[in-house]
Amino acid sequence: DCENACPLTFALESGLERVEDFATVYHTVDGREVALRITVIPLTGEDGGFRGAVEILRPTEPKPGFFLAGSSAATDALRERVAALARNRADVCLVGEPPVCRDVARAMHRYSGMPDNLFRTWDGSWDGISPWPPGTMYASGDGAASLFGGSRPDGWRVLIGGKWCAEASSFEELELPSVDEMEEDLAKMIVAWIEELSPRTTVSQIALERLVRVVRDRGFEELERVLTSALAAAGGCVEEEHLPVDGYHTALVDELLKAPKPLAALEERLLREVLDRCGWRMQEAAERVGISRVTLWRKMKDLGIEKGS
């Protein structure tokens, strides 16, 4: 574990009397990765020579996801149940709304001590999945049935969500609480979900109250749709005007309709976003939107798009 990141070596080579919160990853006997922050205190003898060291290892608490972000008794009980299932490495059926099942599945993976890159979403085949290190495969909906048609790599855990869960009799089952049962924590969940989708983005109190009503009245699938649209329209803070005015309009559409030429505004927004993502590399951006570089340049000129504007 210390071949590439040894805090004691770092302390000795740097001449430091103490190293605080050195981030590294250790491995358990069965190969699981455990994220740690380590404090190292080198010890010296009367002659000033190195005699030993004290190391304090603190596990880094995994991010629980938005559905486990609350502090109510219901959330605490669910968090304990998820952590227990994570430790025994059993295959689990998650019964609930799709966004919630997916979020809790990722939390279970994290509580088992594994990094996010070993959490996979089922694409219909085990082909290309490395047998080591073993991770977690999550599947949802009708396609989950095909998980058992092939040969699963040793050590890989399977988590499924959706109506097919009822047919997986060999799985442990975790029925997730309803919106009503989690009423006390809805606002905290929404804040945590916004932070996860768009780090450092905040939400106003009025907008948060409306989002709570959305999830209470229509559930987490509708909330996911609304948040995706609102974050596309918002800057650093989700405000009331970024939210749908009714059950059909989205915040992004509402914003574009305020422009004198909504279609041109939509095209400008798309091109600016793609250019930013491509680091303003013109050829790459043109290929992303399926046009030539000359056409992209002409559209930028017509729409008044310049780098930094």
Molecular structure report:
The chain is of the alpha/beta class and 309 residues long. The chain has ten helices and ten strands. The protein has a five-stranded parallel β-sheet with strand order 5-6-7-4-8, covered by helices on one side. It has a three-stranded antiparallel β-sheet with strand order 1-2-3, with helices on one face. A two-stranded parallel ribbon has the order 9-10. The model has no long low-confidence stretch (mean pLDDT 83).
Topology:
Layout: H1 7-14, E1 19-27, E2 33-44, E3 50-59, H2 73-88, E4 92-95, H3 98-111, E5 119-121, E6 136-140, E7 157-161, E8 172-175, H4 186-197, E9 202-203, H5 205-218, H6 220-233, E10 237-238, H7 251-257, H8 262-277, H9 282-289, H10 293-303
Parallel strand pairs: 4-7, 4-8, 5-6, 6-7, 9-10
Antiparallel strand pairs: 1-2, 2-3
How many helical stretches? Answer: 10
Uncertain regions spanning at least 5 consecutive residues: none
Largest sheet: 5 strands, parallel
Q: How many β-strand runs? A: 10
* Average pLDDT metric: 83
Strand order across the biggest sheet?
5-6-7-4-8
Helix content: 25-40%
Distance between the termini: 48 Å
Specify the structural class. Answer: alpha/beta
Order of helices and strands, N to C?
HEEEHEHEEEEHEHHEHHHH
Shape: globular
Beta-strand content estimate? 15-25%
Using the CA coordinates, give the radius of gyration. Answer: 25 Å
Fill in the keyword field for this structure.
10 helices; globular; alpha/beta; five-stranded parallel beta sheet; about 40% helix; about 300 residues
